[in-house]
Design brief:
The structure holds 2 protein chains of 2 kinds. Chain A is an all-alpha fold. Chain A has helices at about 1-15, 20-25, 30-70, 85-95, 95-130, 135-150, 150-160, 165-175, 185-200, 200-210, 215-225, 230-255, 260-265, 280-285, 290-320, and strands at about 70-75, 80. Chain B has a domain at about 65-235: MetI-like (MetI-like fold), CATH 1.10.3720.10. Chain B is built from 15 helices and no strands. The chains are: A mainly alpha, B mainly alpha. Chain B: It is a multi-pass membrane protein.
Chain lengths: ~325, ~280
């Protein structure tokens, strides 16, 4: 702390002494600056104009329009007719499927997201320890994430866990009982959770980069002080990774709540709605029943939930996220 | 010394077994595509087909309803390439505006951009659909392609982070030489941010290639389907009889993704690492 202050005071000295020179030039400055500023404004807005155009036509307008639609009854044919809060009332009091899909989504996101993050962190730590062949492991373990979003993988997953699929075949070969994974309402959602957890690659890469940024000296110093690997994990690794964990958690929670393709392709919501994720139900309401007003209301409810979650994570972050610069 | 060597062997054994388990489903998909259609689910877990049945690929390629997979692959390529060009052109311009030009209201718009990045597409899907329906754009590629020309927040952010690492002295030197902002942009900045643009282009291509929900709600004529949507129909559990062909087409559908991944791995890894860290 002290040396820094000294530096600051010494650097200000020459500035003070050169002040008269600037004063002489001052009359010119304001005029030139104004012209330049206006120019810069036009330039700046020109550069970001595509964003502004898209922001108003494809984000702001749709969001407000969807809010309006949520108070109407609209089947895409006639004109939306105002029904006040009816959609919301129906949703909360008279639609068990809505509550079911909400429950399924919270269960799914609540388990799949932590599984993916913990998995990603553990594998990243293992890769950080190993010296040889890191590149090969990293590439292969990242592959599921590269192809994970594709329909092909969802189709493959359906066959993998099918009655005659590879999973049952392996269990049979090992002499273990087979199971109707997709047909049993208790296990179907787990196949989707495993599918989500399996794609831990992107988070793993982000964690790995974060781990590489932690100076080795921290660990050396703490082992001199007698800290073991477990203690080091909790006092060095986790605290220094918290900014990365924060970013990952927010993105993954949103992604978890928005999952659609896996439940649409692997199970199509069944059996008995046990995998009816929220977005799938919203899709069915909008594009199978053409209940646009109700689906819009559903979108707004989810938007509020995501906003609350993100706000909670951000609000709580000062208590658990550690930024290096805080210490300086 | 000996102890250390053993530790290494244990470490690598665990990693190899773990990696194999993780990769197994993908290998299984490829090997099933080579099995005889009727024997796909006999000893389903085995990875070595009895005989190599490449004819699955030929049967599968014929597609359904008289439309072959050539059509679907061309459709996917058109959508992905045009949308990617749109995303990168616009995102680069916008990123430069945010990163280097000082203008009034910049911070507010930047916050709006970051909020848009967190806003899932599913939330605006219904009103956008109604809007494009009014424009009579349903069953065209416009709703899939046009929005990308307004910039993709994730890429804007990624490219911005990259531009920030370029010393401003370069801009100032160019300014002294008489360049205006646009000249600085395409003479100085663009050549230096090619890696970030590449990363964005690769991700954009992936997302468009895999995109399922967009085509699902906007396209209704099978001739216009991209591979993702066609594959879903092709694999409908009620209609599939040729399992080998279904696995063959599934495998082919991810080949472009694999090829790009192995060609440009560096860009992808760097891109993910930086975007996650510098937030």
């Amino acid at each position: 702390m002290l040396p820094k202050r000294e530096e600051q005071t010494t650097t200000t000295v020459p500035e003070v002494s050169s002040e008269p020179k600037f004063k002489q030039m001052e009359p010119l400055k304001p005029a030139r600056r104004n012209v330049k500023k206006d120019n810069r404004n036009t330039t700046g807005y020109l550069f970001i104009s595509p964003f502004l155009l898209g922001f108003f036509t494809l984000t702001i307008f749709p969001i407000l329009y969807s809010l309006y639609l949520s108070f109407t009854d609209y089947d895409l044919m006639g004109t939306p007719s105002w029904i006040g809060l009816d959609n919301y009332v129906r949703m909360f009091t008279d639609d068990p499927t809505f509550w079911k899909s909400m429950k399924v989504t919270f269960f799914y996101a609540g388990i799949a997201v932590p599984i993916r993050l913990v998995f990603a962190l553990l594998v990243a730590m293992a890769l950080n320890k190993i010296v040889e062949m890191v590149g090969l492991y990293r590439t292969l373990l990242y592959l599921p994430s590269v192809v994970g979003g594709s329909i092909a993988v969802s189709i493959m997953w359906r066959q993998l866990f099918g009655n005659e699929g590879a999973v049952n075949s392996i269990l049979g070969a090992l002499g273990l009982p087979t199971h109707s994974w997709l047909g049993d309402p208790d296990t179907a959602i787990w196949t989707l959770i495993v599918l989500y957890g399996w794609q831990f690659g992107s988070s793993m890469l982000i964690f790995l980069a974060g781990l590489r940024n932690i100076p080795k000296t921290y660990y050396e110093a703490s082992s001199v002080d007698g800290a073991g690997p477990v203690k080091q994990f909790f006092i060095i690794t986790i605290p220094l990774l918290t900014p990365v964990i924060l970013f990952n958690t927010i993105m993954q929670v949103i992604q978890g709540f928005m999952a659609f393709t896996p439940s649409f392709v692997v199970t199509n919501g069944g059996p008995v709605n046990s995998t009816l994720l929220y977005v799938l139900y919203m899709y069915q309401r909008a594009f199978e029943y053409f209940d646009m007003g109700y689906a819009s209301a559903m979108a707004w409810v989810m938007l509020v939930i995501i906003a609350i979650f993100t706000a909670l994570i951000f609000k709580s972050s000062p208590h658990w996220v550690h930024y290096e610069s805080d210490n300086k | 010394m000996k102890n250390k060597k053993w530790k290494k062997i244990v470490q690598h054994t665990i990693m190899i077994v773990f990696t194999l388990i993780m990769i197994y489903p993908l290998v299984w998909m490829v090997s099933s595509s080579l099995k005889e259609s009727s024997s796909v689910f006999v000893d389903a877990h085995s990875l070595i087909p009895e005989g190599w049945h490449f004819e699955n690929y030929i049967t599968g390629w014929k597609g359904f309803g008289g439309i072959s997979f050539s059509t679907f692959f061309i459709n996917s390529a058109i959508i992905s390439v045009v949308a990617t060009i749109g995303s990168i052109l616009s995102s680069t311009l916008i990123a430069y505006g945010f990163a280097r030009v000082k203008f009034a209201g910049k911070n507010i718009w930047f916050v709006c951009m970051m909020l848009t990045m967190m806003l899932p597409f599913e939330m605006v899907m219904i009103p956008q659909y109604i809007m494009f329906n009014k424009f009579n754009w349903i069953d065209t590629y416009l709703p899939l392609i046009l929005p990308t020309f307004f910039g993709i927040p994730f890429f804007i952010f990624l490219i911005m982070q990259f531009i920030r690492t370029i010393p401003t002295e370069l801009d100032e030197a160019a300014k002294i030489d008489g360049c205006n902002s646009f000249q600085i942009f395409y003479r100085i900045i663009v050549p230096l941010i090619v890696p970030a643009m590449m990363t964005s282009a690769i991700f954009s291509f992936y997302w468009r290639w895999d995109d399922f929900m967009g085509p699902l709600i906007y396209l209704s004529t099978p001739e216009k389907y991209p591979v993702s949507l066609a594959l879903k129909l092709f694999s409908d559990p009620n209609s599939v009889t040729n399992w080998g062909a279904m696995f063959a087409m599934s495998t082919l559908s991810i080949v472009p993704i694999f090829v790009i991944f192995f060609l440009f791995q560096r860009y992808i890894v760097d891109g993910i690492s930086t975007s996650g860290l510098k937030s």
